[in-house]
Amino acid sequence: MTYAYIGKDRRRVEDPRLLVGRGGYIADLRLPGMLHAAILRSPVPHARIRSVDATEALRLPGVVAVLTGEDCKAKLNPCMNFGPATIAQYPLAVDKVRYVGEAVAAVVAENRYLAEDGVDLLEVDYETLPPVTDPMAAMEPESALLHEEHGSNIGYERTFEFGDVNAAFAGADLVVEDTLHWGRSAGVPMETTGAVAQPGFNGVLEIYCNSLNFSYFSFLIAATLRIPSNKLTMKPVPAGGSFGSKLAAHKVPTLAGFLALQVGRPVSYVEDRLDNLMNSDHHGCDRFYEARMGFRADGTITGLDIDVVDDYGAYMQFGVGHHGNAFSQVVGPYRFRDVRYRIRAVLTDKCQQGAYRGFGSEVHNWVLERLVDQGAARLGLAPEEIRRCNFIQPDQFPYTIPGGNLYDSGDYPAVLDKALSMIDLNKWRAEQKRLREEEGRHIGIGLATTQERSVFSSTEFWSMVEKPVLPVTSSPESATVTIDPTGQFQLLLHCQSMWGNSPETVGATVLAEEFGIPPESVNVRYADSAHALPSTGPGGSRYTVMVAGAIRGASRKLRKKLIDIAAHTLEEAPEDLELVDARVQVRDAPETGLTLAELAATAYFFALSLPEGMTSGLEESYTYDHPYTTLPAPDGSDFGVFYPIMGHACHIVVLEVDPDTGIPSFLDYVAVHDAGTIVNPRSLGGHVTGGATQGIGTTLYEELAYDEDGQFQSSTFRDYLIPTANEAPAFRIGHVQTPSPFTEYGIKGGGEGGRMVAPAAVSAAIDDALREYGMRVRRLPVKPADIVATVRAGRSAEGAV
Amino acid sequence: MTTSKASTTSIAAKYGTARRTVTVHVNERDVTREVSTRTTLADFLRDELGLVSVHLGCEHGECGSCTVLFDGHSVRSCLMLAVQTDGHTVETVESLAGNPAELHPIQEAFAEEQGLQCGFCTPAMVLRTKEIIETGRDRELTDAEVRHEISGILCRCTGYQNIVRAVQSAQRRCRGGGRDA
């Protein structure tokens, strides 16, 4: 299928306004009489709050109010929570603090400077408690408890088994095992999360925010604030980037709303970088694995056994969906059927986990690919060979995996072939040998694949829970398309905008495709929660697929109305007409027709010229539900279909590691992705390079570190090292397009694959570069010091021989 | 334990309310304002002058999103005080084009190459490109040179690849200097 606009490299329609600095971010919003909030954060990991003395702060001219956990306890309900009900959280800590950086008090003042001054003047009396930092020790009965009401530091524990892993391993020729640790990193977009709240007219609280998905959960914020949901209007303010960090980010808008209600004036709370790094609620996964994989001698994988301890931090408001997510692609692109997965989610004195690009699947893929690489090395197979011999084949789709999720379509050999065609591995392998022998230089080649599940179903969030509180099954998206009286297009989206996601380019491209109008001519608006139709918002690589589905649905209705008006006017049968290039014309006599502007004028101004029973205007809405999801089984034997729109990617990395400094540098990087039908190749490419660079950051540089006393070590960009242009490689990108049979136009999501595969590919390349020293990346980030230590140990072992 | 606490008497000293009048040449016009001596240049530009293209990404001098041109050279406006700019020239991206329909060639280059996604580091990248061109070399920079030149500004979205292309394209578009070149 070829399209006129979809699939073409076109400029993004968002960019001109961003290039002149008018992105309309939350920090740019000013309301008359607006106050600013700053937050006092806990300097200790675990303590009882005896008292907060605000006397001095309130004496400072310009400080309007100080609010604490006591105020929250008295006036709020606990925040929304998809984890155990016994683990409650408020926007400001109530009774106890449970990590360094947890919010203790908010100071509201005439400007941010004065608010920060007020924070300086607060006096808090803490009764310190033993810090709980090691997740293994936290599970011991003698450990201090984070949440006495919960009675344990284990937030969730369960084992799932599909097939018979013991039998699969008994029949294996080789079982490899590994102890792996994926360290904490986070999305940390350049723009932090923020909100401005104001008590509006008629007792309606208005909260402007750049949090995503609010149209999905604003009623839960109203519940926390103890106001009826129709007395809260959440107003969308475009988000810059998110990468997960603004997904359902509810505490920032809740806090701003609470402060505005208390002081009766508009209040702005925009996280600064310290707030964002230490208290974003969106630290990424922090997992300790004992993992095993069985192989037959020919490389066929027989089974997978995972025992994972996940260091969730102090709260679990987003539940354990990160593991449900991993189950969407638990076997990767491979055919094996036997899987066991034990998970223990542990509470420690750290910031809670939320979402980061991959949402747990990227971690699982790294583990899977680490095991596959180990199997390949032990069996003497090349990385591409072992993968090829295990791939699910193109004629096997749709393919149901262990656990119940379904892969819609794919051609994994084609992606691998495309990647291999873009790089001469034989040449690099010869060069690797030559450089090692002649110059003592260490080049490594890494190859890895990933599945890229897209378009989540909300069953993901509760299917692993035995008695889910909120077993929702809807995750719709809506669009309203209006043609105005002059024939110009308005597109109303019913969820948050996020510039990084190209929401308007996607919307305008689909409308251009449906009506033959220039994409740049479309005006895009975003509904607030008081006007929004059912919607879920960006996340889980769902946006492009879902918005395209909603817009196409509305467009179909609108096209029918246009054709009916034209048929009536031209006295032709509707089936003899077609809409081509912004004009409805007679199929066999295209010179006879009416432009959209002519039809629009009729629709708005000439009611007596409309077909009988038709009402004036040209506006249609459509709500597009998840294209394919099924109910999970209550007993955990089957998660149902919940993430069936399945992309795929293969990355091949060539890098050199300096064994004396441990510093890797990239020599080549090939990334081939299959995200179904591509809407805009260059935009998708940007997601691939951006995502892969984040994956490289996770692998080599980024760490949200806590020391053994629970002190946070990464509160600035001097400590939390995100890649600069110097660290990012030059990527060479290839695309394969296997359309989805379930979505409009066959589009699949493509926002996360880069980060989901880069860690496995880079880890493999580092191993390969230093193979003779026994290098094996088992812990991320792998730092230069770790690499140097391995080289030194390898050299002295060599010397000893 | 108890957190440290400032005494009431020290408040005035610590949180001094001293104000000073500054005259700065901003985006080709002189502006005179009375500012608090502790107001950063970034906050002055954003809050006093409404130049919201100056984005605050970290406020500790690492991310570079608040980059502006100070006497033609890029500085991090979160690390300067407004009073330091008295008598100097400051340029923000608003000086290149205030109207999205009339982009400067550098901005055209970024749009063409999609050298941006969320737009937050974009004004800084555009200004840095202007500085690269104006303090210029008359040949197009290599990939590695461009990467080095922009490495003081963090971008979390693009992986930099399209930004590198945009800088090179901007160089070509502006070769010979001036926006009509």
From TrEMBL, chain A:
Asked whether the keyword Oxidoreductase is assigned, the reply is yes
Transmembrane regions: none
Q: What class of enzyme is it?
A: oxidoreductase
Name the Enzyme Commission number(s) assigned to this protein: 1.17.5.2
Superkingdom of origin organism:
Bacteria
SUPFAM superfamilies tied to this protein: CO dehydrogenase molybdoprotein N-domain-like, Molybdenum cofactor-binding domain
One Pfam annotation, family name? MoCoBD_2
Q: Which residues form a coiled coil?
A: none
* Oxidoreductase recorded as keyword: yes
Q: Which residues form the Aldehyde oxidase/xanthine dehydrogenase a/b hammerhead domain?
A: 20-130
- Molecular function GO labels: caffeine oxidase activity; iron ion binding
Keyword annotations: Molybdenum, Oxidoreductase
Which PANTHER family is this protein grouped with? ALDEHYDE OXIDASE 1-RELATED, XANTHINE DEHYDROGENASE
Record protein name field: Caffeine dehydrogenase subunit alpha
- Organism expressing this protein natively: Streptomyces jeddahensis
TrEMBL record, chain B:
Offer one Pfam family short name for this entry.
Fer2
Q: Which pathway is it part of?
A: Alkaloid degradation; nicotine degradation
- What EC designation does it have? 1.17.5.2
Q: Which InterPro entries has this protein been placed in?
A: 2Fe-2S-bd, 2Fe-2S-bd_dom_sf, 2Fe-2S_ferredoxin-like_sf, 2Fe-2S_ferredoxin-type, 2Fe2S_fd_BS, Beta-grasp_dom_sf, Diverse_Oxidoreductases
For this UniProt record, the keywords arranged alphabetically read as follows: 2Fe-2S, Iron, Iron-sulfur, Metal-binding, Oxidoreductase
State if Iron-sulfur is listed as a keyword. yes
Residue ranges of the 2Fe-2S ferredoxin-type domain?
Answer: 20-96
Q: Its domain of life?
A: Bacteria
Give this protein's Gene Ontology molecular function annotations. Answer: 2 iron, 2 sulfur cluster binding; caffeine oxidase activity; metal ion binding
Q: What's the protein here called? A: Caffeine dehydrogenase subunit gamma
